Amino acid sequence: MTTSEQIRQTVERNADRYQETLFRLLRQRSISAQGDGVEECASLVAETLTELGIDSRVMATAGFPVVFGEVRHPDARETLLIYGHYDVQPPEPYDAWVSPPFEPEVRNGRIYARGAGDNKGQFLAHILAYHTLVELGAAPALNMKFLIEGEEESGSTNLGGFIREHRNLIAADAVYAADGPMHPSGRPVVFFGLRGMLTVEVRVRGANRDLHSGNFGGPVPNGIWRMVDLLQSMRDDEGRVLIDGFYDDVAGPTAFEQGLLDAIPFDEEAVKENLAIAYFDGPPEAGYYEKLMFYPTLNLQGIGGGYVGPGKKSVIPSECIARLECRLVPNQTPDSVFRAIERHIHYRIPDAVVTAVEGTLPSKTSPELPYSRAVVRSVGEAFGVDPVVMPLLGASGPNFLFTDELGLPAVWTTYANADEDNHAPNENISVDAFKRGIVASARLLTDLAASGALKDRGDT
Amino acid sequence: MTTSEQIRQTVERNADRYQETLFRLLRQRSISAQGDGVEECASLVAETLTELGIDSRVMATAGFPVVFGEVRHPDARETLLIYGHYDVQPPEPYDAWVSPPFEPEVRNGRIYARGAGDNKGQFLAHILAYHTLVELGAAPALNMKFLIEGEEESGSTNLGGFIREHRNLIAADAVYAADGPMHPSGRPVVFFGLRGMLTVEVRVRGANRDLHSGNFGGPVPNGIWRMVDLLQSMRDDEGRVLIDGFYDDVAGPTAFEQGLLDAIPFDEEAVKENLAIAYFDGPPEAGYYEKLMFYPTLNLQGIGGGYVGPGKKSVIPSECIARLECRLVPNQTPDSVFRAIERHIHYRIPDAVVTAVEGTLPSKTSPELPYSRAVVRSVGEAFGVDPVVMPLLGASGPNFLFTDELGLPAVWTTYANADEDNHAPNENISVDAFKRGIVASARLLTDLAASGALKDRGDT
After folding, report:
1. Of A333, A377, B23, B32, which has the most beta carbons under 10 Å away?
2. Are B316 and B216 in contact (CB under 8 A)?
3. Which secondary-structure segment (H or E) carries B21?
4. CB distance from A353 to chain B under 8 Å?
């Protein structure tokens, strides 16, 4: 079997060419939020796939196109679907960039450009891994599919529609993706799911109009006070949510996942100092990472009523608006949590206006699957250090399309350095991380082909 | 003694001249908020006083000038200080006026112009009352002083400074003023004081910056939730304020005042329907007007934190701002209430930023004074109907300068029709109300001169 040393040497030998391939992608603008260069980038990604030996096509969605690539191996019995995105965040403010965001430049061992880490440098690693193995004469006995979308930075609005429409085309045994930065300790991260999300807007009213607080102050209800009383009824003093049914579907960590939680490095004092907080919110019986991964949140994204600007406005405000946000954990659904919240509010204030703004399902893959373990092993070997293994990230995203819509295991990792500054000026990926990412993907492809782990669902 | 009938006939005989005198004032812009025509109007008011037989001068303040007028009577043993204001609200939106705001016009028995009711048509009534009595050969044996300021619509910012600087000049035995609209029933209002006011800005913080609600949601405190918990600790379920010491200095109504409260016409269902509210706020043991006059309020003028605009912002907001407003009742002071609020907040959130934005003392004159009763009588006689007598108005203003700074009884009434639309387009005063106001002031001056009630402090 192909050794990691052989893979490393081949990547080193091709280093200049691989970097130039990345540079060509980075030079192409692809700002989905601004509709700037996105289609051109899709064509370029497809071209790149083809050049590297992977059949590819640009496929329409209701928004920006998806690039689909495919490699079939005559001996393959399993298929890996690789996900990534070619669109990037807006680069503003331009002034804050040392070198222009779409003119990639290497400084101090890092490649600086918008999209270097998020996500061009990471999805390209998988493609180059395949090329590396072919060069070694060791193409893995695996079918590979590439799904590189162009709307991730704009909420992946049309990914669900695309996946449902092309279910057969993208059929696979598992999903793999690399996105995001490594742990601050420098160790890569492997994670197995995301929290879901539910955003709810609540409008509560006192009188039917703002009133002079002198002429009416005392007997007339104030919309903000009603909102304060309503919100306060939703949490106890320690931050437990009091909404009936809110925790009903919460699965909680398995014993294995609890072990992973306990192993995540955590410097409580450093976190408190960095955020300038004196205490942690939420039930004291749960740890930091348990709250972040296995406790649904009831966050207040915003509140607004009356006037708090310069000067003054002596009114009894009529209306108060609050934007509630729940991060959902396995096995909650946005629908059932919304109904619980709505019931809680309407029981207290029947005429409150309660609207679901947005819902995303949580997603989780078992970290005990052979495929999951293979990822942890490959990434660890490529980077020379054990990854930080997280059952879930606290954030949300379209991963449920893979886990729930397609019913596939989906495992994520991070190939970019911790200080990649994704979404910020001077985004970068270190040359070393870029090359190690290629090695990690090649290692994984080789191991999966050899082990047959992709189809193995035994939770041992 | 001069009869009301004699007074009425003289006012009727002079009606055209008096209306033209008012029109001249109304044609002169005097928008203090926009600095438009204010000094010119001061000169015109002084001219008007002089023409009508009252010594006058324009006196500087740190802002717009005060017009001071004075009449001495050789037999007078008492002095009445009459307060009013010659500045007006901005007239915007101009388009909404049927006739231009500074081109007075009579339509359907009403004089339409900015300032017609608020306050040119009302302060002029006192001046014309003196002229009427002189014409009748019945100048009252009373010294009269006129203090007509030019900043009332901008918060009377410099009235306190003026009064403290010219204490001897304005020395008097009591204060009289007419401002505001009559009761919706068409009866004039007589009132004896105002609530005070305290505005407090509170800033509460979670972490030191807004944080990604996915990456940090759960363990990290949210500034809005902290504010909600803080605010909710300030009130019980029925709206009683729980801040220690908040009610300490509250005097409550006297038996006489309670009698007045009970006599104020109140249609509970009409008020609820008009405001579209299902219940009244505040302790159920207190009535509507008791809450409006003798209960301090803890109003929320505004609250703001995070983001509630279009789109979404998935953050844990760092900061939340609330603007608290207390309407204060006799004998509370802004200072002591501020200290109670500050203590309450800092006990719970030591690093909350608590700032007093503004403070105004409450003010009250006994409605049992002979002077107070004389006003009720004169106004009732002039308008042919018993006034609605209110111990206090719920609103706030500089009246404490007279009652507390100068230690004088101060009684207020309303000469403008209930639908005067002060502060709004098409402001007006009915010709009838304007003339009855003159009669009421003349009646009062005559009665005060005859009775010596101004110096009589016996509360019987």
Report:
1. B32
2. yes
3. helix B15-27
4. no
Distance in Å, alpha carbon of A17 to nearest chain B alpha carbon? 36
Which residues, listed in sequence order, are joined to residue B413 by a DSSP beta bridge?
B178, B190
Q: Is A214 on the interface with B (CB under 8 A)?
A: yes
In this predicted model, what pLDDT tens digit does every residue of B50-85 receive, in sequence order?
Answer: 999 999 999 999 999 999 999 999 999 999 999 999
Residues of B in contact with A207 (CB under 8 A): 275-277
In this structure, of A213-217, B73-77, B311-315, the range with the lowest mean pLDDT score is: B311-315
Which H or E run includes A274? helix A268-275
What pLDDT does residue A72 have? Answer: 96
**Close Cβ partners of A394 (under 8 Å, ≥ 6 residues apart):** A195, A292, A293, A327, B214, B215, B216, B217, B218
Residue B393: list chain A partners with CB under 8 A.
Answer: 214-215
Residue A113 exposed, middle or buried by CB count within 10 Å (0-12, 13-18, 19+): buried
Task: Report the alpha-carbon distance of residue B69 to residue B127 in Å, rounded.
Answer: 10
How would you classify the pairing of strands B388-390 and B189-191?
A: parallel
Interface test with A, best of B183, B275, B358 (most A CBs within 10 A): B275
Instruction: Give this complex's ipTM.
Output: 0.91
Strands (E), A135-289: 143-149, 174-178, 189-191, 193-194, 196-205, 211-212
Q: Do residues A226 and B237 lie in contact, with contact meaning Cβ atoms separated by under 8 Å?
A: no
The reported pLDDT for the residue numbered A1 is 75
Bond prior to B331 in cis (omega within 30° of 0): yes
CB burial class (10 A; 0-12, 13-18, 19+) of residue B215? Answer: middle
DSSP B252-303: ---HHHHHHHHHS---HHHHHHHHT-SS--S-TTS-HHHHHHTS---EEEEE
Half-sphere exposure of A148 (CA within 13 A, CB side): 35
Q: Closest Cα of chain B to A209: distance in Å?
A: 7
Do A396 and A197 touch, CB atoms closer than 8 A?
A: yes
Chain-chain contact of A297 with B325 (C-beta, under 8 angstroms)? no
From the list A396, A393, A446, A360, the residue with the least C-alpha distance to A130 is A446
What pLDDT, in 10s, does the model give residues A423-445?
Answer: 899 999 999 999 999 999 999 99
| pLDDT for res A77 | 94
- The pLDDT of residue B382 is 96
Could you say which residues from 308 to 347 on chain A have a Cβ atom under 8 Å away from some Cβ of chain B?
A: 308, 312-317, 320-323, 325, 327
Number of neighbouring beta carbons within 10 Å of residue B50? 13
A457 pLDDT tier (thresholds 50, 70, 90)? confident
Q: A231 and B228 in contact by Cβ < 8 A? A: yes
Tokens 């043991």, located at residue: B285
Average pLDDT for residues B203-216, to the nearest whole number? 94
Cβ-based contacts of B207 with chain A (< 8 Å)? 275-277
C-alpha torsion sign, points A273, A277, A278, A283: negative
**Residue A229 touches partner B, C-beta closer than 8 Å:** yes
pLDDT tier at A310, thresholds 50, 70, 90? confident
Q: Does A261 touch chain B (CB under 8 A)?
A: no
Strand, helix or coil at B214? helix
B313 and A302 within 8 Å at the Cβ level: the answer is yes
pLDDT attached to residue A460:
46
How many beta carbons lie within 10 A of that of residue B238, not counting itself?
Answer: 10
Assess contact for B261 and B318: CB atoms under 8 A: no
CB contact under 8 A, A280 and B221: yes
